[in-house]
Amino acid sequence: MIMDHEFTKTIRHVLHQKFAASAKHIYDKSELLRYLNIKTKSASRGSKSRGSFANLYAIYVLVEDYIARGYDAKEGYKDSEGAIFTALFKRQRELPFGQKLQNHALNHRLKEEFRKYFPDCEHIPIVRTDNRYWFNEHLLRIDIDGTEFNLAKAIIEVVDAYIEAKRDAFEKFIQFCETARNLSEEKVIDFIASLLEPTVDARIFEIVSYSVLKYYYHNQTIFWGFQIDNLNEERLTLNKTGRTNANDGGIDFVMKPLGRFFQVTETVDVNKYFLDIDKIEKYPITFVVKSSDSAVILSERIREQAGRQYGVNAVVQKYMDCIEEIVNVPLLLERFQEASENGFLGEILEEIIRQSKVEFNYEDSPEMAEEIADELAEEATQRGITPLLAVQRYGLSFSNSVTTLSITSARR
């Protein structure tokens, strides 16, 4: 049974607008609509399931092509020439949040996930041959008591509504970050610390963890060279390799000049860890984990899972030796505190704003910025609402508690 969530109301509203009294029957009978319901559960919470946009956009661009060719109102789609991959791929990258999406959803990922949720459904969403793609029309046409309904335009409206909900939440998050420039140092610390909670949005966690670690290492230098009497002193620099949904080959951050690799993850799934290790040919990697569990406990869990899966200690140990360090939430908070004490609080906040704008393809609109900034500032200051609660009210998912964190009490 797939449970309803906040965005389900929007899906049902779209269906009611288009199909009136038949809306409920159509929803109950359509695996595709129920799949969209699963993939859009983060709309009102800000919690991001990696791959949601990729799979949704694979559906979107094919259904959009189907409508553009007029097949929502005529027969003959099964005899059509299909859509060209390059055109579909280009279109999905034109959509909000889609600039760095890869081709996996169009080629196999959507099919596999759809089968996971609906193993008894005889239809797969995407049909392809060579370089031509079709959306399975059986999933778009629903028969209710002898009357056939085409879902194509409803599908487009549902995904459009989801995009707007996500974009609105993230734009308001960025706007609130900008208002934080005018808060006291103590409130800025509380605000940034709240963005490192285990329940925070995955994209935001990656951005904030990068910003914190960048300035934690900023004052650290090493000496290196090819001759003992001719050494170079160089500051450690952490670079972000791409956006959070990019196919980055298992690397999120790279440290110069040491060549350390960092990967951010929100799971303790051994397959995820070892896949990332395999991607970089078993080169040592540091995992930044969205968890409050200690590094020792996390390491033990990975080892236990690996032992059950591989059953050979030598193989398990070879992988475990590639885990250079595990950075958990308490350690991130400690490093945030140290970077703040070293005078980098403002730089960390600016980095969060800068990376968020890149991640969410945000363009400054002075009129909108002024309007939302005034609204948020009034709520946070005049009503005595903490920064965490103010952000919660604009669609981002943190813990249920509105108590600000104390980073001084965090323990690894």
Q: Brief overview, please?
A:
Helices cover 50% and strands 13% of the residues.
Written overview of the protein:
The protein has 412 residues and is α+β, with helices and mostly antiparallel strands. It has 2 domains: 8-167, no CATH class; 183-409, no CATH class. The chain is built from 16 helices and 12 strands. It has helices spanning 8-19, 23-29, 31-39, 52-68, 85-94, 104-117, 152-179, 185-194, 202-217, 270-279, 295-310, 313-320, 329-341, 345-359, 366-381, 387-392; strands at 83-84, 126-129, 132-135, 141-144, 147-150, 221-227, 230-235, 237-240, 253-256, 260-265, 285-289, 323-327. The strands form 4 sheets. It has a 5-stranded mixed β-sheet, with helices on both faces. Helix 4 packs across helix 6, helix 4 (52-68) packs across helix 7 and helix 9 packs across helix 13.
